[in-house]
Every structure is written in structure tokens, then in C-alpha cells.
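Standup notes
- DV: blocked on the single-chain target, sequence here:
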Amino acid sequence: MAKYGLVGKNIDYSFSRTYFTAKFTNEKRKDSYENFDLECIHHLKELIERSPEIKGLNVTIPYKESVIPILDRMDKEAEKIGAVNTIKKLKSGRLVGYNTDHYGFAKAIANFLPLEEKTALILGTGGASKAIKYVLDAMEFEYKIVSRTPFENRITYSELTPEIINSHYLIINCTPLGTYPNIESCPDIPYHEITDKHLLFDLIYNPTETEFLKRGFAKGAKVTNGLKMLEYQAEKAWSIWKS
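- DV (later): unblocked, structure below
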């Protein structure tokens, strides 16, 4: 019996265990899926050595980038993106990193296109935002990355002018702000400038309607959470583990 799981920190909220457990039950598989809440990513090697039945892992916040040095090698796309959310353990025991977030996002956003213009704001600079950037590059979007702290090729939240909001029609929340149980928090953007021409995409899926999405919807914007993205990336991860 093979074991799969999710590696992250404070991940009781995660949908992945429910999703894969239901999948294994429906397919009459004896495989299992567990949450592995690690205080430090360096405990990953110890976890795998302790549980040789582990065949594959998903990786979530805050370890999508810090897990990379622990891996033996990376898939070409994950290498380009600079973040890993799926690990496959080979028969040799070597760990290979992949990124299925980009696949999930591209599939999930397809039904909302085209927008008024191919312009976007990426809120956040973590591993998830790197996958979004990869997709937007492939789709030939013009975008700005928004960060709490100033850095090269980024703008800060305080620099978000009405002109910037009005000319960037896709706004993607790649931060954990608004995730259960802290459901009242949201990125600090000028929501009063949002219009019915905007699409707000939140990578968060718990709760299903975040404060970020509520505020966008109130201004007439199209909104969507990260559930479909998660489902698409999970199926992609499963195809990698089975191959």
C-alpha cells in the first residue's frame, strides 16, 4: 500500500487530504493520503526515511521554495519556475521535484478569458506567485508584482494608484491573507477602484469566498477562488506519481 501526503506548516485547513482520500475510495485503491505538518522543511528527509511507503508528496506554504535544496533533481518546468509543489520518490529513493500549480492555474483561468486587456497584478512573491508569473509570461500578459517590501521589479501596496488598478484587469491573490481561520484579513489594495471589467482570482479555497473576493464582487468584478486550480493541479500530480 502506497502512502501520499501534503507537506506544509499549519495545514489542518487543507483540502488535499479530503480530495485524495475520496479519490482513492472511489477508485477502490488501498493507498492513503496524510498531512505532514513540519515545523522545519529539513525534517522532510527524516520523514521519508521513517516512512518508506511514501511514494509522492504535495508541497504547500511555506516550503515550495525551501524544499528545493533537499531534492535530488527537478523537472525542467519546476526549475524554470523556481518552486516545487509536487515530489515523486523514485524506486531508487531519489526525490524529483515538479510544479503542477502552473498547470492548475492555466486550466482554471481559461473559462474567464479574454479580459479587457492582458494586464495583471500578482499579489505576493512566494512560490505560488512564481507559478502564476510563469503562466502569465506564456500567455503574454503584462503584469506587475506587488510586495509588502520594496524590491527590484516590484511595487509596494502603497504604490497602487487608481491608474494602476484601472489598467490591470486581472488581480491574483497569491498571499495566504484570508485563509481560514483568519478569514477577515485580505490584501491591502484600493478595492473602491475595482470595476465590472476586473477578474479577481484568489488562490485560497478555504473559505470558498474570501474577504478579497467579497470586496471584488461587491464592486461588480468577476471572482473565483482556488478550488478548481487545486483540483487540476492535484490530478496532474497524480499522473506524475503514477507514471
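- Follow-up: The mean pLDDT is 96.
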